[in-house]
Amino acid sequence: MLRAGLKWMFLIIGTTIGAGYASGRELWQFFGHESGLAILLFAVFFTISIYVILNLSFQRKSTDYLPILRDIVGRKLTGVYDIMIFLYLCTTTVVMIAGSGATGQAFNFSYWWGVFFIVIVLILLFLKDINGILSINQLILPLLLGGLLYILLLFTFDQELSLFAHWHEQRNWTAAFPFTALNILPLIAVLGAIGNKIHSKGEIWIACIGSGAILGVISYVYNNSLIQIADELLLYEIPLFAILKHYPFAMLVFMSILLWFAIFTTAAAGIMGIVTRLKKYVNIPLWLLVMVILLIMVPLTTLGFSTLITYIYPIYGLLNLYVLTRLLLYPIWNKVDKRV
């Protein structure tokens, strides 16, 4: 049970910590100053939402997200949100591919080398169906989380930063709602595809509490670090590099590799959500379907990494507020429906 719960926990975190999150760009877009309470609320909302999604997937024994989506938003809006999730997964994957290109540029490689490298690795990953994603998440995520937390805590102690200096200033608490909503939609798609692989409620509890706590802690420490270098962030496509400039080049290389893996795991999760939705309509091998989808996406990456995050993520965050509301209130209105 513990091993299975950790497997789902890493899948959840791997889906969430992508180019936008791990680079710091997404956190800074939503949080920044006076956001300690917002991040705490995010951790709570995220945990509740994940529990509802996993529990529904477990009950339905689902293999794609459509039945789960129908339970969450109702039959009338299922079609609308089905299209929205599909477009969101495509957009997010494009952002991840663009992030791979941006990471390559940091080391003076061509943008397109970074783009095509991640495309090739994603195709190879799906030669083993979705089991490849689950295996690689368990291998990469502990290293990624440990490395990211290490550099953030090192920066905190080196700069003698206080983690709780601004708790009396919390005017940005409402940012918790669009930020959670933004991150929940792809998880409906990904977790809806594994319902038939979950075997107990214990796995669900480990996955939802573990992922919520880990993401809450890392988000708080990360945001606190970015506040200290706020004036420098305009100069960096990837805010994490503004922190890493204080350390040896070897650490920059190490964290850039981990950043690329964060991009890769989220891109893989996005592709997983897309292909599990499409495979019932398209009778071709999974890897071939993945290749076709990725080749369509590549030209869209020319819009630029930070541009995509700046304009697209907040819009989706607001549109997804209805889904978040339904998830947070699901335990209540589901009991009411049963009584009626």
From TrEMBL:
Transmembrane portions of the chain: 38-58, 79-98, 110-127, 139-157, 177-195, 204-222, 249-274, 286-305, 311-329
Keyword vocabulary terms for this entry: Membrane, Transmembrane, Transmembrane helix
UniProt cross-references to InterPro entries, sorted A to Z: YkvI-like
PANTHER family in the record: CONSERVED MEMBRANE PROTEIN, MEMBRANE PROTEIN
Protein's UniProt name: Membrane protein YkvI
Organism: Lentibacillus populi
Lineage, broadest ranks: Bacteria, Bacillati, Bacillota, Bacilli, Bacillales
GN (gene name): yyaD
